Amino acid sequence: MILNTIRDYDFSNKKALVRVDFNVPLKDGVVTDDTRIQAALPTISYLLEHGATVVVMSHFGRPKGKKNPEFSMAPIAKRFSELLGKQVILAKDVIGPEVALQVAGLKKGDVLLLENVRFYAEEETNDPEFSKNLASFGDVYVNDAFGTAHRAHASTEGVAHFLPSFAGFLIEKEVKFMAPLLENPDKPFVAIIGGSKVSSKISVLESLVRTCNTIVIGGGMAYTFLAVQGHSIGKSLVEEDYKETAASFLAKAKEKGVQVILPVDHLCGEEFKEDTAVVTIDSADIPQNLIGMDIGPKTVALIVAAVSQAKSVVWNGPMGVFEFNSFANGTLTVAKALAQSNATTVVGGGDSVAAINKFNLADKISHVSTGGGASLEFLEGQVLPGIKALEK
Ligand code: ADP
Ligand code: MG
Question: Are 313 and 341 in contact (CB under 8 A)?
Answer without folding.
Answer: yes
